[in-house]
Amino acid sequence: MSDVLIPGGRDVRGTLEEPADDPDAIVVACPPHPQHGGSRSDPRLVAVSEALRDVGIACLRIDYGSWDDGYGEREDVRNAIRWADEQYDGLPIGVFGYSFGASQALLAAADIDREIAAVSALAPTVQLADDLDALAALEAIASPIQILYGERDSTVDCEPLVERARERGDTVTALSGDHFFIGQHGKLADAVSGFLEDVLLESM
């Protein structure tokens, strides 16, 4: 595990976790809302990162820079993707996020000058602002997408995303639990890493 400073004009730091051997792909992981305590040490991100490492995929968990109403945070994710692309030249890139971070993963992947091989979004919210629309972002992404949601989630309304993902033929995974997935970290990590392993390694 190593600390990374992401270039781009904002103070964005990450934790890079790599497998013992050379990785086969790299995933950028986006934390939940920073004003509600979201950080790269979020246990759901850590569980996913460890599961990815175990299947040979590196994972960069980031902290956002100073709060910027979702706009700077979207650019933070884009800059982390650019860093990953430069550091792991030629390897497939995936993006994962939870809650606010799931929406940011979709938003960043929809409009970036890099090839994104897969996006996994855990409990995304549909809209962060009028022009930060995760549903519109989902429509703009051509690569495989996974939407995971809690069957008892009353914190965010991700049903429009779930419905549209099903209509598009994307991967939709229901998890027993609410928005916080207490006691479900291992299960969700397996679901996310399984999807990303299948898609990213297939794209090589």
Strands, count: 10
- First-residue to last-residue Cα separation: 24 Å
Tell me the structural class: alpha/beta
User: Helical percent range?
Assistant: 25-40%
The dominant shape is: globular
User: What's the order of the H and E elements?
Assistant: EEEHEHEHEEEHEHEH
Largest sheet: 8 strands, mixed
Question: Measured on Cα atoms, how large is the radius of gyration?
Answer: 15 Å
Number of helical regions: 6
How would you describe this structure to a colleague?
It contains six helices and ten strands, in the order E-E-E-H-E-H-E-H-E-E-E-H-E-H-E-H. It is α/β, with parallel strands linked by helices and 204 residues long. The strands form two sheets. Strands 1-2-4-3-5-6-9-10 form an eight-stranded mixed sheet, sandwiched between helices. A two-stranded antiparallel sheet has the order 7-8. Helix 1 (43-54) packs across helix 6 and helix 2 packs across helix 3 (100-110). The longest helix has 18 residues, at 185-202. The model has no long low-confidence stretch (mean pLDDT 97).
Q: Could you give the topology of this structure?
A:
Layout (H helix, E strand, L loop, with lengths): L1 E5 L5 E6 L7 E6 L12 H12 L2 E6 L8 H17 L5 E6 L1 H11 L7 E5 L4 E3 L2 E2 H7 L4 E6 L8 H10 L2 E5 L9 H18 L2
Parallel strand pairs: 3-4, 3-5, 5-6, 6-9, 9-10
Antiparallel strand pairs: 1-2, 2-4, 7-8
Could you name the key traits of this structure?
204 residues; alpha/beta; 8-stranded mixed sheet; two-stranded antiparallel sheet; 25% strand; globular
Short description:
By secondary structure, this protein is α/β, with parallel strands linked by helices.
